[in-house]
Every structure is written in structure tokens, then in C-alpha cells.
Amino acid sequence: MKKLIMLISCLTILRIAVSAQQTSTKTTIAQRFFEIEKTLEETRKEMAALRQQIREIEVRTSLPAIRQEINKLVQAPEITHEILLNNGTVVRGKITHEDLNKVIVQTNIGELIISKNDVKLTRTAAKPHAKCVLDGPVTTKISEDKTVYSGKIKNDGERRADFPQIVFSLFDEATRLIARDSVIVAGNFVMFKSGVQTDATILPGQSFPFECTVSYPAGSKVSYYIPKITWDEFE
Asked: What is the pTM of this model?
């Protein structure tokens, strides 16, 4: 009888040990599964971030080529003629063909075929030009050895202004030049046919800010300044 009781006790202890081991194994497996899931989630986030970076790099590297292709496709014709019609309409463009019956004109909106019966007058078109002016007042911030000038420049002309620049010349009471400096105004991005790229262009009607710092010897007595705006016209 005693042997039977001891055998039952041993079996009970063995079951408890096995159960505890199984529980411990399940806990370890669950912990490992959680750690693996955590690692996979971090890997997914890193891969997503890398994909985003790759997309940004692809966009940045492809933009110059895209802009160049657009410039090739969108080419405004040279305006060389003005055709005044009998109804008062003025057609501006480049005459590509003319005979006794018609005139073919390449315009900004496409090719037009105009009957000679509708034409009142044909003349050479005045070439449009840019015209950069100050847009509002110039503010000054005066220090011991420099003055910071800020304001806006506007293109009041009929064509794009390339590399607009404002020059400030500072004079004393005796009209002697004290100092001079300039700044190129940043505006629109453009790619020229030569492949040169710049963000220093202003389209007709547009206005962009500038800030120009002119340094001079400390203690200089600036009486007045003269601003001068220059620009180029390419293509």
C-alpha cells in the first residue's frame, strides 16, 4: 500500500514538472514570436523609408531631362509680323508662306491661314522687350559699416527678363562714390536651349523680392544712393 502511495506521488510530481516545462516552452516561443514580429515591423518601416528615398532621388534626377523635353516641345514662334485685318483684329506671329490668295502665319496658338481679302495691312512687328522696375518702396537697414536694401522688382515689359540685377551706388554730400554692390534677383526656373539652367528670370507681370547688402568703411557718411536695374533677354 505504501509503495502504491509513493508511486502515485511520483507520478503527480512528474505531471507537474512536465506541465511546468510545457508552460515555460510556450512562454519562450511566444516571446520569440513577439521579438520576431517586432523585428519584421522595424524592417518593413526601414524598407518603406528606403523606397521613399529612392522615389525622391528618381524624381530629382529625372526633372532636368523632363524640363529639357518640355522646352523642346513648347517653343513659342518668333514674332516678326503684325497683320491688321479688316475687322480690326491684329494677328501677331511669323509669316511662313504667302501667295496671291492667302497668308500662313505661325502664332502662339498654332498655324493660321488668312485670306488676302481679309487683310488690311501687313507690317513688321516691333520686337517685345522686358522692362524691370521697382515695385514699391525700397527699405533700408543702416549699420555702422553697411546698409541692407530690400524691396521688389517687377517686369512691366512684354517678354521674359533674364538675370535681372539691381545695383546700389552710395554717394556722400560731395557726390563722391563711397561704395557699390549688386544682387541678382531670384525668380522663375528656366532652361535655355544651350542647356544652361537658372532661377533668375521674371516673366511679364511678375514681381519678386530682393535684398542687397552694401558694405563700406565704418564711419562713412552716406548722403544718398542710386539704384539701377539691368537685365538680359535671351532666346
From this structure: 0.54
